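Researcher: Sequence of DUF6377 domain-containing protein follows. Predict its structure.
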Amino acid sequence: MKKLPLLFAAFLVVSASGLRAGEPSDIHTLLRRLDGLLDRREEFLLRHEARLDSLKSLLCGDTLGFGARYAVTAEIAERYFAYQSDSTIAYLRRNVALAERAGNADLTIRAKSVMAMCYSMNGRFLEADRVLAGATDTLHMSRATQAAYYAAQHRQNRECRSQSEPGAERDRFRACEEYYARRALETTGDISKRFYFAYLVAVDEGDYDRAAAACDSALACAPPASHDYARAAFYRSETERFRGDEAARFEWLVRAAMADVQGAVRDYGALGGVAEELLRRGDAARAMRCIRVAINDTQAYNSPIRSWRDMAILPQIEQAYSERNARLRAMYVALILLAFLFALSAIGGVLFVLRQNRRLNAVQQTLRESNGKLAELAASLRETNADLSRQNIRIADANRIKEVYIGGFLKTISEYIYKLADTYRHVGRMLRDGRSDELRREYAGTDVRSDELKEFYHNFDTTFLGLFPSFIGEFNRLLADDARIGVRRPGSLTTELRIFALVRLGITDTATIAALLHCSVNTVYSYRSRMRLRSLVPERDFEQRVQSIGLGDDAAELSGT
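Model: Prediction complete. Tokens:
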């Protein structure tokens, strides 16, 4: 008994640390998960049967010694314990026989204790009394056998108390139940059973926080799909019931039912409790499914006391179905009336819509005609705007060219005036000094026309490339690769480039180009024809594209349209 405070303190520490098995979830999500697990019920049962068959196969040979055979038989009985009561009793009898043949009194009492617990859980109290009658000397039992014996006595008194009328007899059963729970807690070495009995002791003392801590610790130690987890979750729901938290109680009850289904448990109370709560909440269909599974499993478990318990809810379900059917009939009548009213409204609406459609068609025809005219006006306006945009770009380009070339023209005239003035002064000085022969020789060896033409070309190239620095690159992009023109030095143009530079400036007359560049008309015509033939664009659009160089992409597109 001195260990109890330390054990409960450990429970409280674990609980306070937030160790709660199972993540919080919306109850509707949990119910959907339970539905999915019920759909897979047969799969879990077959898996459990396969595990039982594998254990039974170990008993077929003669290679197992007494200890191993006793352990395997005990494990089979344990797996049958919440699955099929008759098979549980049968394998426990085998263990009793094994222990008796081996002369092991301790193991005999342990097997009989488990058998008595099974009898008590199934309401067979006389058989339980008869099995436990000879086991009274607990001092000579091992600790594990003591734990099994106390657990069996606790279960027997618990079941008898639940079946007794209020009075002295029931109080006696309760006192014995509490006594054996404490004794089992002191002796058991099984973690799950220790937490279970700790929970019972805490509930008996009215300490529900400590009871919840014990359940949380048991949940943390048990696999989520095991019978131990289901039992801990069920008692956790009972704790919430004691506290008055119905929402938490139902959530833990559903979790317990889920673990029972996954663990192939047939002797459970959680699924029946879920059915009752679903019925109270008005979900009769789901409640009926849960109780049907519970009844089928109870029949397979073969426990009359469990069958009576599950059958008790059937009248409630039948009443719920009757009430639901009455509500459905009333709802159907209301729906028929609403459908009739809706049909009348629909007929009136159809007539109104047909009348409005005739008016709408006339208006739509007028709108279509107006929209057609507006579309024509919009197209005309877009074309006019495009023309204006092209003209504006051209005008801006022409103004820029005009400003540059007028400035260059005035500068050139000014330079020629100074040059002529210098020449006249030089000639006059030479003639005045009587040096006419020297003057004649000086000018006889000078090609004034060639020098001035070179200077003209240089000025033209510099000015044009200053206006259109990307002209050479953009012009070459209009030509095939083998027809592209290179320049001898940066900042200068070839004759072909000068011809199309003048075209870019808006001078397209061949004779005028020839006169400006001081070359023959045939030369200009030949260059222009050859470039058109070797261009990447249609011949008729070539020079128009040349005139768009330097205007930008938008202007080039407008120029091409």
